[in-house]
Design a protein that fits this description.
It is built from 19 helices and no strands. With 363 residues, the protein is mainly α. It has a single domain, classed as Growth Hormone, Chain: A, CATH 1.20.1250. It comes from Komagataeibacter diospyri. Keywords: Cell membrane, Membrane, Transmembrane, Transmembrane helix. Its main location: membrane. GO terms for molecular function: transmembrane transporter activity.
Amino acid sequence: MAMLPGVARSLGVSVPVAGHVISAYAVGVVIGAPLATLIGARMSRYWLLLALQAMFVVGNAASALAPGYGPLLVIRFLTGLPHGAFYGVAALVAAGMADPARRGRAVAGVFVGLTVAHVVGVPLVTWAGQMLGWRAVYGFITAMELLALVMIARTVPIVAPDPQGSLWRELGALRRSQVWFTLATGAIGFGGMFCVGTYLSAVLLGVTGVPAYVVPLAQSLWGVGMVAGNMAGARLVDISPTLAVVVTLAASTIMLCLFSVCAESMVLVLIVTSLMGGIIALLPALQTRLMDVAADAQGLVAALNHSAVNVANAFGAWLGGAVIAAGYGAQDVGWAGAGLSAAGLAIFLTGLLVQRAGARGPV
C-alpha cells in the first residue's frame, strides 16, 4: 500500500487501477487459506510451513521482476495464496510449543510482525520505495523471506503428521456452529477497524485539519497501539479466549464512537487513534477460540480466520467509502465502524447463547 503511487507511475496506470494489485493479493488470501490447508492436511506442519514460506520467496522475487501490470496482478494473487494458511499453521505450531498457560501469548507472538510493521515497516517501506523504487523493496522483502525460511527450518520442531489427518476431517469442522459464529464475528466485528483505518488520512487532513506531516505520526501511533493491544490481549486470552473477544469488541465499539466525537481535536483524535490500535487483540483471541471449538480439525479453521479478516478488510473499507459517498462527513466512518464492532459482538454473544443452550447438532 505504501508503494502504490510509485507502482502506478512505473507501470503507467492510475493509482486506483494499481490498487487492484492489493485487491488481488487479498483475494488470494481468501481463496488460498482453505485451499492450501486442505491440500496439506496430511503433511507435517513443519514441511507445510516450509512449503508455504517458499511460495512467499518465489512470489516476492517474481514481483520484483514483473514486466508489467498484468503479470504483477497475477503474481500478487498467487503470492497471497499461502498467506492465511501460513499464519493459521504457524499459530497452531506456536500454541503446541508453548505451555498451555501461555498459549495466548504464543499465538500473539506469531502476529507480532503484523503490529510492528505498522510502527517500523510502513514508514521504512515508504522511504525505501521513494528512494530506491518498489522493485528494490520487493527484492529486500525476498531476502527477508529467505532468512525466515532458514529460521523456520532451524527452529520449528519436526513433528510427524497426524495419521488421522485428512481433507474430510478438516472439512468436518464446518459442521460445527461455533466455528461459523466465530468466523462471522471476525468477518463483521473486525470490519470496524478497517472502516476507520482506510480513511484515517482523509479524516485527519479534511476534518481535523492537521499538517500533512502529522499523518505518518498518527499511523505510527496506531501501530504502537497495535503492539500494546496484541501484548495485553495475549494475556487476556490466557485467562479466557471468550472473555478476550467480548472485551475487545466492546472496547472497539467505544473507541470507534469516540473517534467520530473527537475528530475535530488533533490531540484527542491522536490519543483515540493509538487506543484503536488495540483492536488487533481480537486476532489472537479469535484464533485461540477457533482452536477450542474446532476440536480435531483445527488446521482449516485456523486458516479461515485470516480469510475472515480479509473479508472484514474489504467490507469495512467499502462501508466507510459508502458513508462518505452518501454525503456524510468523513469522521462519520467512526459511527459506521462502531456499528460493525457492535454487530460482531452481538453475533459472538448469540453464538455463546446457542452453545449454552445446547442447540441440536455439533457445536
